[in-house]
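re: ur question from the group chat, yeah i did fold both. here u go
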Amino acid sequence: MIVSWIQNSISPSLKSSVVFVDDAKEIWQDLSDRFSQQNGPRIFQLKKDLASLLQEHDSVSIYYGKLKSLWDELSIYDPFPICTCGILKTLMDRHQRDCVLQFMMGLNESYAPIRDQIMLMVPLPHVTKVFSLIQQQERHSQLTSNVSSTQTMALAVTKPYPSSKYPPKQNPNSKKDRPYCNHCKISSHSMETCFKLGNVVAPVCSTVILLAILLRNVTN
């Protein structure tokens, strides 16, 4: 019955190679020898990914999540030894320390001040505690940045425009500074240019000139 279950569970291409085997243990061993892989290559790849992982443009939460995923998978392929002595606790403490150091090494340089403060703590906090502290710093920085942006926008709105170096143009229709004749009581000219006072020659209307020319031609 077990043989039938194994044969029905594998793909048809593999089933043909064990169809004539009646022993379940023999089938299982044959498949294990052909398809099982050592943990070494996967452990190497996981540690390589951990060594090259940086926060860069990720948030602290996303960056920590990537690290946590690699740590969890690595613990499956490379588990702690099972023992009843006190060495296991020492190994787990060292593992937590390494996780803290790895997490902080990949952070952006903007977290350098709080990172230095954490490194001075004795004993070094658990990696989850360190993650919480860094995340609080991230939120504080975002809040400060938003406040600064709002203040900058407010200043840009309230800032007066610089005065022009060119004087404003005078409106030609404005009555201010227009010449005024006290003799004629009008503002079309001044007393210095008043022909009624004899200061200038009286202007001749173009219509009068044209009429004089026509009359001269008629008399001739």
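okk and heres the other one u asked abt
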Amino acid sequence: MRWFRRRSTPPLPRAPREVAEVRAAHLHVHTAESLVVLTTSPAALREAGEALTAGAAVRLSCGDGRPVTLFEGDTSPALDPDEGWLIPLPRQAREFVCGLPAEPGAWEVPGTNVGVVAE
């Protein structure tokens, strides 16, 4: 019997201590198989992109719904019961999100299992 086993799943992301707050007109996250899909307004997506460009972590929120935190990292997205959705983005993915147009559309973020919908 093996007492010590190698961890087969990647570690869960940790919420960043400092975040830029962005209030969204609407915010919804759902999963489609292994894909985590973030739906929000083009204006909120633009504000989040500006904060990510400045190197800050971003917490999107809307009313009493679960917040979504986008930040630098290489682990998989996770739903934290206290913090809401934690979505780490590698450098290339952050650059992609920062470059999204502030108009309605849908994109799959390369190198991650994250999709973004602006409507």
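fwiw on the second one: The domain at 19-118 is CATH 3.30.1360.230 (Gyrase A; domain 2). The radius of gyration is 15 Å. idk if thats what u expected
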